[in-house]
Amino acid sequence: MGRVLLAMRCHGQNLSTFAIDDRRLVRPALLAFVGIAKAWSLTEAEQSAILGQPMSAVLAALNEDGVSELRPDTLERVSYVLGIYRALHTIFPNQQQADRWFSRPNTAVLFEGAPALALLCSGRAADLAAVRQYLEAQGLENTDDRA
């Protein structure tokens, strides 16, 4: 089984990498996604598109610890979302501004004038990775400006 990079802390435990079938960490990762989805006011359809599978399957996995019900790339996708969330909150000191950024039109080449949410909901994990990489680069630029 592959490992997924996940920048997250849960109950004081650093969850930096984990196996996709590690039952101890699947639940905290999915709960973190659900919390972020709520903060971002994502619809069930948007959540499903981002995770690449119906939210009903994800919620069933949460309720029944049904790791086998999840697509193999689900936790990879969650890790991208966590990275996006972290990067937004690094770039924008205001929580509301950070949580609303992805729903506003964006002139960056990656987004072609559309909101980042359109790219996040494309259904492709590679697009989630691209948004995360873009934001992490923006965060590094902002950090360099402050130094």
Provide a descriptive summary of the structure in words.
This protein has 7 helices and 4 strands; from the N terminus they run ββββααααααα. It is mostly helical and 147 residues long. Helix 1 packs across helix 4 and helix 4 runs parallel beside helix 7. The chain has a two-stranded antiparallel sheet with strand order 1-4. Strand 2 and strand 3 form a beta hairpin.
Give a quick set of tags describing it:
7 helices; mainly alpha; 59% helix; two-stranded antiparallel sheet; disordered N terminus; disordered C terminus; single chain; two-stranded antiparallel ribbon; 147 residues
Topology readout:
Elements lengths: L2 E3 L3 E2 L2 E2 L2 E3 L3 H17 L4 H8 L3 H10 L9 H18 L3 H6 L15 H5 L4 H22 L1
Antiparallel strand pairs: 1-4, 2-3
Helix pairs in contact: 1-4, 4-7
The total tally of domains equals 1
- The structural class is mainly alpha
For the secondary structure, the number of strands is 4
Distance between the termini: 40 Å
Helix content: 55-70%
Radius of gyration, whole Å: 15 Å
Mean pLDDT: 80
Question: Strands of the largest sheet, in order across it?
Answer: 1-4
How many helices does DSSP assign?
Answer: 7
- What characteristic shape results from the CA principal axes? globular
Q: What is the makeup of the main sheet?
A: 2 strands, antiparallel
Q: Uncertain spans, ≥5 residues at pLDDT below 50?
A: 1-17, 143-147
Give the DSSP E fraction (strand runs of 2 or more residues): 5-15%
Following the backbone from N to C, one meets helices and strands in this order, namely EEEEHHHHHHH
